[in-house]
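Hey, resending since the last one bounced:
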Amino acid sequence: MQYKRVLTIQDISCVGQCSMTVALPIISACGLETAVLPSAVLSTHTGGFNGFTCHDLTEDFPAIGAHWEKEKIKFDAVYTGYLGSVKQVEYVLQIMQSAAKSSCKKIVDPAMGDNGKLYPAFNDDYVAAMRNLCAKADIVIPNITEASFLTGVAYKTDYDEKYVKELCDKLQVMGAKTVVLTGVSYKKGRTGVVVADVAGLQYYEHEQLPQSYHGTGDVFASAFTGALLQGKTTMAAAQIAANYTVQCIRNTVEDKEHWYGVKFETCLRTLQKELE
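The C-alpha coordinates again:
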Protein backbone atom coordinates (compact mmCIF):
# COMPACT_ATOMS: atom_id res chain seq x y z
CA MET A 1 0.00 0.00 0.00
CA GLN A 2 1.34 3.42 -1.00
CA TYR A 3 2.23 5.73 1.87
CA LYS A 4 -0.29 8.54 1.51
CA ARG A 5 -0.53 12.09 2.81
CA VAL A 6 -3.84 13.44 4.13
CA LEU A 7 -4.56 17.10 4.86
CA THR A 8 -7.23 17.78 7.47
CA ILE A 9 -8.66 21.28 7.84
CA GLN A 10 -10.60 22.06 11.03
CA ASP A 11 -10.22 23.77 14.38
CA ILE A 12 -8.00 22.82 17.28
CA SER A 13 -9.98 22.56 20.51
CA CYS A 14 -7.09 22.13 22.92
CA VAL A 15 -9.22 20.19 25.42
CA GLY A 16 -12.32 18.23 24.54
CA GLN A 17 -11.43 15.34 22.20
CA CYS A 18 -12.93 16.67 18.99
CA SER A 19 -11.93 18.24 15.67
CA MET A 20 -8.17 18.30 15.07
CA THR A 21 -7.21 16.64 18.37
CA VAL A 22 -9.26 13.65 17.19
CA ALA A 23 -8.45 13.73 13.48
CA LEU A 24 -4.66 13.90 13.76
CA PRO A 25 -4.12 10.85 16.02
CA ILE A 26 -6.82 8.69 14.41
CA ILE A 27 -5.68 9.24 10.83
CA SER A 28 -2.05 8.84 11.87
CA ALA A 29 -2.91 5.56 13.63
CA CYS A 30 -4.30 4.37 10.30
CA GLY A 31 -0.76 4.55 8.93
CA LEU A 32 -1.13 7.78 6.97
CA GLU A 33 0.94 10.94 6.98
CA THR A 34 -1.36 13.58 8.43
CA ALA A 35 -0.87 17.26 7.66
CA VAL A 36 -3.00 19.90 9.33
CA LEU A 37 -4.43 23.32 8.62
CA PRO A 38 -6.07 24.71 11.79
CA SER A 39 -9.06 26.97 11.21
CA ALA A 40 -8.96 28.30 14.78
CA VAL A 41 -7.47 27.52 18.19
CA LEU A 42 -9.88 27.21 21.13
CA SER A 43 -9.00 26.53 24.75
CA THR A 44 -11.81 23.95 24.85
CA HIS A 45 -14.69 22.98 22.61
CA THR A 46 -17.93 24.92 22.99
CA GLY A 47 -20.20 22.11 24.18
CA GLY A 48 -20.50 22.58 27.92
CA PHE A 49 -17.40 24.59 28.80
CA ASN A 50 -17.82 28.23 29.82
CA GLY A 51 -15.53 31.17 29.07
CA PHE A 52 -13.48 29.40 26.39
CA THR A 53 -10.96 31.36 24.33
CA CYS A 54 -10.92 31.37 20.53
CA HIS A 55 -8.26 32.65 18.12
CA ASP A 56 -9.40 32.69 14.48
CA LEU A 57 -6.76 31.72 11.89
CA THR A 58 -8.61 32.61 8.69
CA GLU A 59 -6.09 35.22 7.60
CA ASP A 60 -3.27 32.65 7.74
CA PHE A 61 -4.86 30.44 5.08
CA PRO A 62 -3.66 32.30 1.93
CA ALA A 63 -0.01 32.44 3.01
CA ILE A 64 0.00 28.77 4.03
CA GLY A 65 -1.58 27.75 0.74
CA ALA A 66 0.90 29.89 -1.23
CA HIS A 67 3.84 28.34 0.60
CA TRP A 68 2.62 24.83 -0.13
CA GLU A 69 2.20 25.74 -3.78
CA LYS A 70 5.73 27.19 -3.90
CA GLU A 71 7.15 24.01 -2.31
CA LYS A 72 5.02 21.84 -4.64
CA ILE A 73 3.41 20.08 -1.67
CA LYS A 74 0.47 17.93 -2.75
CA PHE A 75 -2.03 15.76 -0.90
CA ASP A 76 -3.63 12.39 -1.61
CA ALA A 77 -6.73 13.46 0.31
CA VAL A 78 -8.18 16.61 1.81
CA TYR A 79 -10.62 16.11 4.68
CA THR A 80 -12.46 19.12 6.08
CA GLY A 81 -14.32 19.37 9.36
CA TYR A 82 -15.59 22.40 11.27
CA LEU A 83 -14.90 25.62 9.36
CA GLY A 84 -15.68 28.87 11.10
CA SER A 85 -16.81 31.24 8.34
CA VAL A 86 -17.78 31.77 4.72
CA LYS A 87 -14.31 33.20 4.05
CA GLN A 88 -12.67 30.03 5.36
CA VAL A 89 -14.81 27.91 3.05
CA GLU A 90 -13.69 30.06 0.11
CA TYR A 91 -10.03 29.63 1.06
CA VAL A 92 -10.50 25.87 1.45
CA LEU A 93 -11.84 25.66 -2.09
CA GLN A 94 -8.70 27.42 -3.33
CA ILE A 95 -6.39 25.13 -1.35
CA MET A 96 -8.26 22.04 -2.56
CA GLN A 97 -7.54 23.14 -6.11
CA SER A 98 -3.90 24.16 -5.67
CA ALA A 99 -2.68 21.43 -3.27
CA ALA A 100 -4.54 18.35 -4.48
CA LYS A 101 -2.98 15.57 -6.49
CA SER A 102 -4.89 14.59 -9.61
CA SER A 103 -6.20 11.52 -7.76
CA CYS A 104 -6.94 13.43 -4.54
CA LYS A 105 -10.00 12.37 -2.53
CA LYS A 106 -11.91 15.43 -1.34
CA ILE A 107 -13.87 14.51 1.80
CA VAL A 108 -16.17 17.09 3.40
CA ASP A 109 -17.82 16.76 6.78
CA PRO A 110 -20.19 19.77 6.66
CA ALA A 111 -20.12 20.22 10.43
CA MET A 112 -22.70 22.95 10.97
CA GLY A 113 -25.70 21.59 12.88
CA ASP A 114 -27.53 18.88 14.76
CA ASN A 115 -31.01 18.09 16.09
CA GLY A 116 -32.65 20.17 13.36
CA LYS A 117 -30.74 23.39 14.10
CA LEU A 118 -27.65 25.14 12.84
CA TYR A 119 -24.86 25.80 15.32
CA PRO A 120 -25.17 29.37 16.71
CA ALA A 121 -22.24 30.73 14.67
CA PHE A 122 -23.83 29.89 11.31
CA ASN A 123 -26.55 31.35 9.08
CA ASP A 124 -27.98 30.94 5.58
CA ASP A 125 -24.89 32.48 3.97
CA TYR A 126 -22.74 29.82 5.58
CA VAL A 127 -25.10 27.07 4.41
CA ALA A 128 -24.79 28.40 0.85
CA ALA A 129 -20.99 28.40 1.09
CA MET A 130 -20.97 24.87 2.50
CA ARG A 131 -23.31 23.76 -0.28
CA ASN A 132 -20.73 25.00 -2.79
CA LEU A 133 -17.94 23.14 -1.00
CA CYS A 134 -19.95 19.91 -0.88
CA ALA A 135 -20.64 20.22 -4.61
CA LYS A 136 -16.88 19.99 -5.21
CA ALA A 137 -16.41 16.98 -2.91
CA ASP A 138 -15.91 13.35 -3.79
CA ILE A 139 -17.50 12.30 -0.51
CA VAL A 140 -19.71 14.25 1.91
CA ILE A 141 -20.45 13.06 5.45
CA PRO A 142 -23.49 14.94 6.78
CA ASN A 143 -25.92 14.02 9.50
CA ILE A 144 -29.68 14.30 8.88
CA THR A 145 -29.76 17.94 10.05
CA GLU A 146 -26.91 19.00 7.79
CA ALA A 147 -28.33 17.11 4.82
CA SER A 148 -31.65 18.87 5.40
CA PHE A 149 -30.10 22.34 5.36
CA LEU A 150 -27.92 21.55 2.36
CA THR A 151 -30.80 20.23 0.26
CA GLY A 152 -33.68 22.38 1.48
CA VAL A 153 -35.64 19.28 2.44
CA ALA A 154 -37.63 19.69 5.67
CA TYR A 155 -35.95 18.18 8.73
CA LYS A 156 -37.72 15.16 10.20
CA THR A 157 -37.15 12.99 13.25
CA ASP A 158 -39.66 10.38 12.10
CA TYR A 159 -38.79 9.26 8.59
CA ASP A 160 -38.52 6.29 6.27
CA GLU A 161 -36.19 5.05 3.53
CA LYS A 162 -37.92 7.24 0.94
CA TYR A 163 -37.01 10.37 2.92
CA VAL A 164 -33.39 9.28 3.29
CA LYS A 165 -33.17 8.51 -0.42
CA GLU A 166 -34.50 11.99 -1.22
CA LEU A 167 -31.78 13.58 0.91
CA CYS A 168 -29.06 11.49 -0.71
CA ASP A 169 -30.38 12.02 -4.25
CA LYS A 170 -30.48 15.78 -3.83
CA LEU A 171 -26.96 15.87 -2.38
CA GLN A 172 -25.71 13.94 -5.39
CA VAL A 173 -27.60 16.16 -7.83
CA MET A 174 -25.95 19.09 -6.05
CA GLY A 175 -22.57 17.64 -7.06
CA ALA A 176 -21.37 15.34 -4.28
CA LYS A 177 -20.28 12.08 -5.89
CA THR A 178 -20.79 9.90 -2.82
CA VAL A 179 -22.88 10.53 0.29
CA VAL A 180 -22.19 8.96 3.67
CA LEU A 181 -25.24 9.92 5.72
CA THR A 182 -24.79 9.36 9.45
CA GLY A 183 -27.25 8.95 12.30
CA VAL A 184 -29.89 7.20 10.19
CA SER A 185 -32.33 5.45 12.51
CA TYR A 186 -35.37 3.53 11.27
CA LYS A 187 -36.27 1.90 14.58
CA LYS A 188 -35.81 2.45 18.28
CA GLY A 189 -32.51 1.35 19.73
CA ARG A 190 -30.83 1.06 16.34
CA THR A 191 -29.02 3.58 14.18
CA GLY A 192 -26.58 3.46 11.33
CA VAL A 193 -25.05 4.95 8.23
CA VAL A 194 -26.27 5.09 4.63
CA VAL A 195 -23.81 5.09 1.74
CA ALA A 196 -25.16 6.43 -1.54
CA ASP A 197 -23.04 6.19 -4.69
CA VAL A 198 -23.38 5.05 -8.31
CA ALA A 199 -24.35 1.58 -7.09
CA GLY A 200 -27.35 2.91 -5.17
CA LEU A 201 -28.01 3.00 -1.41
CA GLN A 202 -26.55 0.66 1.21
CA TYR A 203 -27.35 0.74 4.92
CA TYR A 204 -25.26 -0.44 7.84
CA GLU A 205 -27.21 -0.70 11.09
CA HIS A 206 -25.77 -1.00 14.58
CA GLU A 207 -26.70 -0.51 18.21
CA GLN A 208 -27.75 2.97 19.30
CA LEU A 209 -26.32 3.68 22.72
CA PRO A 210 -28.37 6.01 24.94
CA GLN A 211 -25.40 8.22 25.79
CA SER A 212 -24.20 10.97 23.44
CA TYR A 213 -20.87 12.79 23.45
CA HIS A 214 -19.38 15.80 21.78
CA GLY A 215 -16.96 14.92 18.97
CA THR A 216 -18.25 11.49 17.95
CA GLY A 217 -18.96 12.82 14.46
CA ASP A 218 -15.30 13.80 14.20
CA VAL A 219 -14.27 10.35 15.42
CA PHE A 220 -16.42 8.71 12.74
CA ALA A 221 -15.26 10.99 9.90
CA SER A 222 -11.59 10.61 10.84
CA ALA A 223 -11.75 6.81 11.09
CA PHE A 224 -13.68 6.70 7.83
CA THR A 225 -11.03 8.81 6.09
CA GLY A 226 -8.23 6.64 7.42
CA ALA A 227 -9.91 3.40 6.38
CA LEU A 228 -10.80 4.74 2.93
CA LEU A 229 -7.24 5.88 2.24
CA GLN A 230 -5.98 2.47 3.31
CA GLY A 231 -7.88 0.93 0.41
CA LYS A 232 -11.20 0.00 1.98
CA THR A 233 -14.37 0.47 -0.05
CA THR A 234 -16.63 3.33 0.96
CA MET A 235 -19.09 0.94 2.60
CA ALA A 236 -16.39 -1.01 4.41
CA ALA A 237 -14.81 2.24 5.64
CA ALA A 238 -18.20 3.40 6.93
CA GLN A 239 -18.72 0.12 8.78
CA ILE A 240 -15.26 0.24 10.34
CA ALA A 241 -15.77 3.86 11.39
CA ALA A 242 -19.21 3.17 12.85
CA ASN A 243 -17.99 0.17 14.85
CA TYR A 244 -15.02 2.14 16.11
CA THR A 245 -17.19 5.07 17.21
CA VAL A 246 -19.57 2.77 19.10
CA GLN A 247 -16.63 1.13 20.87
CA CYS A 248 -15.25 4.55 21.85
CA ILE A 249 -18.60 5.39 23.46
CA ARG A 250 -18.71 2.04 25.27
CA ASN A 251 -15.25 2.69 26.67
CA THR A 252 -16.40 6.02 28.08
CA VAL A 253 -19.85 5.48 29.59
CA GLU A 254 -18.68 4.14 32.96
CA ASP A 255 -16.59 7.24 33.64
CA LYS A 256 -19.15 9.82 34.74
CA GLU A 257 -16.52 12.56 35.02
CA HIS A 258 -15.53 12.13 31.37
CA TRP A 259 -18.56 13.96 29.92
CA TYR A 260 -16.82 16.14 27.31
CA GLY A 261 -15.74 13.56 24.71
CA VAL A 262 -15.04 9.88 24.13
CA LYS A 263 -11.93 7.92 25.08
CA PHE A 264 -11.03 7.24 21.47
CA GLU A 265 -7.39 6.58 22.32
CA THR A 266 -8.28 3.39 24.19
CA CYS A 267 -9.70 1.85 20.99
CA LEU A 268 -6.99 2.75 18.47
CA ARG A 269 -5.50 -0.76 18.49
CA THR A 270 -8.92 -2.18 17.65
CA LEU A 271 -9.18 0.21 14.72
CA GLN A 272 -5.73 -0.76 13.49
CA LYS A 273 -6.62 -4.47 13.64
CA GLU A 274 -9.75 -3.76 11.55
CA LEU A 275 -7.52 -2.25 8.89
CA GLU A 276 -5.10 -5.18 8.73
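The longest helix spans residues 234-250.

Sorry for the duplicate.
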